[in-house]
């Protein structure tokens, strides 16, 4: 199986060469030491660092349980009557399906998939950016999308991407998508990144959100063998990112790396997840100015 980050899984390698995963893992480590490949989250890729972007059909079938769990947990961040921005992606699409139940919500998005998920929500207002349609991920990009976001101010931005590292933050493989995501970030008081464990430690070409601008990361529980993801979570927490980890079963799994791992997230830098309302913000957001209210009204009329 080829993963979202372009890696071939160790299980698939073992099947092809007709040997055990233990043997394959040992051989992969030896090849990595010689610089002949890179290990990636239970698999391997050819060396070269930056991964290429998969299309929507491929992404929509990857890590589906993990994306569901992440969306369930992230939805608890959103209160009634808020105005938020939601970027493009299969994980944010899952989030949008849950936001349909939040009354009085205003969602600004450049994603046709997010808008579709909210199209029949009677108590949610959807505001779409302008721009040029990028068919591979059903997102509006380009100068039209970026200009429509200028002067906008909302409480939170929910973004996904192709990779996340503590060194560079969130990144994606497409320049136009990265540019719009940066505009979404500029519109928000807080930035929430939704990224499953396969994206942790993966770096792609275009940076969208540097680590110091990421308020929270909502992710899933890495598998037991994935030391890279656990190490990356630790590094992100060390830089002040609040981290919430959801169980892959679809139920919120708490806010720390499971016991038994080599690292644990430092308490003061983790986000608290109460039972009924996970990840509620404890920081009062500034009231929008009259100019900002006017900008939202202008977008709604478009």
TrEMBL record:
<dbReference type="InterPro" id="IPR037171">
    <property type="entry name" value="NagB/RpiA_transferase-like"/>
</dbReference>
<feature type="compositionally biased region" description="Basic and acidic residues">
    <location>
        <begin position="290"/>
        <end position="302"/>
    </location>
</feature>
<dbReference type="InterPro" id="IPR036388">
    <property type="entry name" value="WH-like_DNA-bd_sf"/>
</dbReference>
<dbReference type="InterPro" id="IPR036390">
    <property type="entry name" value="WH_DNA-bd_sf"/>
</dbReference>
<feature type="domain" description="HTH deoR-type">
    <location>
        <begin position="1"/>
        <end position="46"/>
    </location>
</feature>
<dbReference type="InterPro" id="IPR014036">
    <property type="entry name" value="DeoR-like_C"/>
</dbReference>
<dbReference type="InterPro" id="IPR001034">
    <property type="entry name" value="DeoR_HTH"/>
</dbReference>
<keyword id="KW-0805">Transcription regulation</keyword>
<keyword id="KW-0804">Transcription</keyword>
<protein>
    <submittedName>
        <fullName>DeoR family transcriptional regulator</fullName>
    </submittedName>
</protein>
<dbReference type="InterPro" id="IPR050313">
    <property type="entry name" value="Carb_Metab_HTH_regulators"/>
</dbReference>
<dbReference type="Pfam" id="PF08220">
    <property type="entry name" value="HTH_DeoR"/>
</dbReference>
<feature type="region of interest" description="Disordered">
    <location>
        <begin position="246"/>
        <end position="302"/>
    </location>
</feature>
<dbReference type="Pfam" id="PF00455">
    <property type="entry name" value="DeoRC"/>
</dbReference>
